[in-house]
## 1
Amino acid sequence: MSAVTAIEAKLRGTFRYLAEDPPPGCLHGAVLFSPVPHARIRSLDISAALALPGVRAVVTAGDVPQGDILLGPRRKDRPPLARGVVRFRGEPAAAVAAETEEIARAALRLIRLDLEPLPILADPEAALRQEAPQLHPAGNLCHDFLYEKGRLEQGFAACAHVVQHVLDTPRQIPAAMELEGGIAWPNDAGGLDIRAATHSPFAVQAALAEMLRLRPETIRVTGSPIGGSYGGKEEMHVQPVLALLAWRAQAPVRLVLRRSESMAFATTRHPFRLAIRIGCDGQGRLRALQADALVDCGAYASFGPEVLETGLECIQGVYAFDAVRLTGRLAYTNNGVAGAFRGFGALQTLTGLELAVDALARQAGIDPLVLRRRSLIAADADGPLGQIVLPQPEIARVADALMALPSRPVAATSPRYLRGIGHALVRKGEGFGGGGPNAADGVLTLTAKGRVALETSLTEMGQGIEAASLTLLKRAFDLVDGDVDTRLGDTHCGRDAGPTSASRGTQMVYRLIRSGAADFRAQLIAEAARLLKEAPSALRLGPGGVYRMAARRNEPDLTLADLADQAGPIALPVHAPAIETSYRHYDTHTLFTCCAARAEVELDRWTGRLRCLSVELIPACGEPVNRLAFDGQMAGAAVQALGFCLTEDLPALDGVFQAGNLDGYMLPTIADAPEVVVQPMTWLAPDDPVGLRGAGEIGINAAAPAIANAVAAALGKAPPRLPVSPGWVLAVLEGLE
Amino acid sequence: MKITFTLNGIPQAIEVEPFLPASHLLALQLGQQSVKTSCGIGRCGGCMVLLDGVLANGCLLPAAKLQGRDVVTAQGLGARADRVVAALERHGAVQCGYCAPGLLVSLVGALESGDSLSGPEVEEMLTGNLCRCTGYAGIRAAIRELVGG
């Protein structure tokens, strides 16, 4: 399917997402979620539910074949169904498969879950107190972090100006429009087929195989296409419970959460409390940085340790400090479960850093852009934790491009309104650090229909990996629309490409195709040469098939369809190796992406309400593969950044989230969306071995601090808490803050 | 109860639970997967349909209220939507696409509402269609192309 067709199919509603095609006789699943944040399970009686006519399976922790299994994307600490204790409101305790959804829901009401309430760990500070009840065997400190460089107090002693800022960041939720769900059924291989959105089909396969005590190859995972994720569907969501239901019932089961269930159960962004102290010398050069992060992990580790490490790895931004001390603590609490979300810790820390940089510039009376420009790291500097990284000569160019943006008038349209303009200059690691699954495998094939295709387990979630693959295949093989194809997001291809995350998807596709393009072209030409009885050197690929060099024809001498027909299957396994990091103690990265942003906000002096008017972004990702898709990633990121700064939060009160649907959780609408201008910095070092950078996360990491700084510029004061509340704005205007 | 109505021009006569949300009936029993339930409370616009030519959230509509009505989903817009589909596609207004059919119904409904609306007025009519991917930039560009301004 070409990208154009897919988009029209999506608009006209003929496109099928993974949970939309239940097989005949498919059962309906429903989950009993814990109604309280923390409790011991005294008893769990499912007999009445099982006896309800139409109920085909009820599962609890006792029904898990590998009964002691703990799941998790990296650290394994989470049972598929609550075992003896519930650790957050929304934790699955039991699940039902029944002939109709009504029966399944009725059966849930017949399950007697007897809970003995336990003390609630309502915030990370409380969780880390000595007397706090322990959520996990190793205690409530899920992870911590310490990095020091240079002598901190000497560094601050050399500073002419020092500021401190404490920032609380919101519990933002990914809120993909497609809810978590899927369909699973027993297959002929003696295992299960499962169709449910994921970034990592092979990781799901491995985990479910272990949970069900099956061989991995008996489990087929289809994880693509996805109706939005942003990290929210990166780790398993309903898959374990869905697989248990289908396995227990030995029948197809469809399970799709409701929004209210999703908001309690699904992973959120990690709220950070960041305390930053930063100083510059009399010449306006940043010299010393101290930062401490206290992070709310929620009830299970998920990606928390990696989020903490990535956040603190990125907190030095693009600046060269003489002295740095970075500390972080990640605490288990009863506040849902935080996990992966676009930005991955760096969003929180870069927003804190850039707010502090502007606050410092205000105090020192220096232009914040000049302060930034004077403080940049050298192009070939070591990585932020001393690791070896690819050189980033583009940073200076991005900084210059930011300074060269034509100035915007700050005058508001009426005295009722006040405007501010803010800037940010950031970088974030891409791919995985710490020996994560950075390599990728795939297959280049000539399909039976005569299309040159890339098969890989990378997934399409709207980020445009399918369109990018098609574009890159056309380029690599001199082909046109209709000659190329993709098969994405499935374990069936047998080649693991690793997770589609950390902004790496397009980069991996690019490198996979590049790695095999010459060989696969030679393979196709060799087969064609045999069939056409020509020397391979006399043939070339072109639109529709293979051409004789000598002939000047518009039609191929051998179409790809005929080649596929006559030559049989042609396939070439392709591999993109990891770019190895040299530093394994932390989750450090080798590859960094730089971006600058400028944002403009307008605030209403009467109501304290804020509007973001514009966001300009200068992402240094090389030449975009597909400019429309690239700009789309930036615009989407800008509006998610707006949500992070101005509208979105899911506050918890004693472990209970204070919104249960999209009426209480404020996603930006089209009326809130700023004008977004994207000015790509296409230049990367000529000898850059990768050739491009991912577009997925860098936009939000630049846009959010720019928006926050625009608020700070309008008020002359950095906000202590995001999203910025109108109440705080009014208090500042009244001189109360 | 038994109800009769037309769905994308085709007469229907079916037995329904009267309070079943029309979005569920359409998506799960009548093959209209374009009517997507995301919030279930009329906030996100994923389930948008045209009811006698007027925009309605399928999730807020009890199945019984379809009696005698003319229902059109994204799957039934056909040539009415060609211009809008082309504009949205040209401007990159679709990423994951989960909100896309609801958006298409809303945009076609807005443009057909009879008034000659300005770009900002059309945008106002789309504030009930949430999109989490695109930042609305492509949608806004398509609206500009369709109505100017």
## 2
Amino acid sequence: MQTTNAVNGANYLTYQGRYKGLFGWIFSTDHKRIGLLYLYSIATMFAMGVMLGLAMKFELLAPGKTIMDAQTYNATFTVHGVIMIFMVVVPGLPAVFGNILMPIMIGAKDVAFPKLNLLSWWLYVLGVVLVLAALFFGPGSPDTGWTFYAPYSFKTGTNMLPAIFGAFVLGFSSILTGLNFLVTIHRLRCPGMKWTKLPLFVWTLYGTAWIQLLATPVVGITLVLVALERVFGVGIFDPALGGDPILYQHLFWIYSHPAVYIMILPAMGAISEIIPTFSQKHIFGYKAIIASTMAIAFVGYLVWGHHMYTAGMSGTAQYYFSLLTFIVAIPSAIKVFNWISTMYKGSINIQTPFYWAISFIFVFMIGGLSGLVLGSLATDVYVHDTAFVVAHFHYIVFGGTGFAFFAAMHYWFPKIFGRMYDKTWANVGWLIFFIGFMALYTPMFYLGMMGMPRRYYDYLEEFHGGNILSTFGSWVLATGLLIIVVNLIRSARTGAPADANPWHSKTLEWTVPSPPPVLNFDKEPVIGENEGPYNYD
Amino acid sequence: MKNQQLIKVLLLCVWVTCYVMPGFSQAVVNPAATDDDVEIGIVEHLDAYLPDSISLINEAGEQVWLADLIDKPTVLNFVYFRCPGICSPLMEGVADVMDRSDLIPGKDYQVLTISFDPGETIDLGVRKKNNYLNLMNNKEKVEEAKTGWKFFVSDSASIVRATNATGFKYKKNGNEYLHAASLTVLSPDGKITRYLNGITFLPFEWKMAMVEASKGQSGPTINKVLRFCFSYDPVGQTYVFNVTKISATIILFFAVILLLYLVLKPKRRLKSI
């Protein structure tokens, strides 16, 4: 094992390549630098999304107009959704941690197509610029909701086209990343790195890459069709031109439901790395987790109709979609059982990443179980389009992917930056964040059950109490977030130098110095017959 | 090199997808098409004359002859009033161009909107007319259009004669009709001088069509792209479903090729790092 500390040595952060300064980053084809570029871009967009979210919660502090009118609120939740989904959560873990760590975890020196990798990031930036252009130029911010539902998306007078085109470009970025990862995992594994020795994070990236490759073109094509309809009046979704708006919903959700698994699978992968490390025990049911990962990736394609129970479809189709939705819950539950079984009788070392991981399991379970309420036909009709859906969605996407992102950040931070963060402040930040999260979203389950619709800037007096608690929770969450971010930024600059393997983990990335050298390995690693990513015994 | 090829393939896919899909929802008018070739759409009969034997029911419920009405450049507009599809956007387009054009309806030209559904009554037509007049902003134009834009219904025999003469091909499908959005311009003596396709019209092309019609000159159809009004038909699998099927097939085809390539082609080892 190479245990040298390389903060001041030649590593990917300090390496002087063909270009200097900023150009040395934005034109770098090093997968680790590209991963960090993604991290900084995604963090910036996340900050914007959080601001918009806080503004929405502030508006809902009291009934009636508080700080914005109805149209502004519509635009706010639309832009919040577009930013958070297309620019933060979908690229999130694969683009950041997948890029930085996946090649090292399989013993490769880079991804299969480094230039394509850089192009993906540039496309991401282009997509972001296009969407932001929709906000600042033209006849007003998009106000259709992040789903761009027809017929709103071609009837509204607001600036839809740049936003749609931006989302399309972001989709392309996602496809290229997926393709790159697929080829890398198939082609560039080091000797001895069999499929059954791959770390689970890599397995989840593999499943995710297939979804990116197969599902993302659907939304790309759909958005092109909306653009064609808006510009040329081609009748596809507009009933006035002979189109069918329900078709739009089908096409959109054929992508967007698998996209939820693009978001959650790498999150599950990161948790599957963290739990064995901090339990110092072999992951329970390695192959079961792989099977459940691929099952989620496959069955996840077939459940999109559960978003549309009230939109109009045949009873038979509803039954099948409902049944499949219940089936897709099984692999997720398998994973939860595996994580808990891994901890059982392990030497648990409670550190910040572990706090994040166990709180992930907690909120993910609540999110998952509330998903079954929405997957059941009768109960879905009752809570459809209420705050209950918003609560479920945020428990899964923010509680799931968001918590896993912070878990991964605190887990791999010493590897990425070569420095350790202040653990006390990291724990304080986690605790405040967790309390804020629960206070923010739990009341929305109750509000939804009581009948409060989503996407309204106003509500009845009877919903006031729950909304006050929720808005208060948003402030607590923001405080926790601020502590976490400040601690991480400070530590990246001035933290204590970190060892190559501070958590005593077994995967390959911990065998190289922190931060890793430019070409990752001095000599190509070879995995022995008895070695494996979780062989702690 | 490999990257370049990959990018080329991706660009080709995007191009093919973008090119193929609009083709399912529109059709280009083929001027050489005959009546037998086209089931739904327009077969141009430029320079042909309308027969005299077309009778209509006007807004007052009186029977009139189409030939007697044509004494100035005339736009024939075939729709059916309860159409859920393209007829309303078409008539909105007509109202819009009448509003914006400096020609005076009723004096310089007239528009005759005729329902090709023999089951419809003129009451509905009168209500529709008021709706479309309300869309016009110019108050003077509204007054002029009251006399210059006339709505009619007719019997099935006259409808067949009129639509056959103009080459307007439509088909009944359940309770609705499949048809194209197009206007036929006639000279004061009843000769077909131009077809205006689409649902939006420029004041300039409108004026040109009327001026030429007043001289009896026929002109080529500028907008060759016809828009069709297909009703949604899940059993008959309309064009929209073909779009999704073809797209899905292309995506899955490339995915399978990629998987086979990755699995079957031997892994090339990097020499050293």
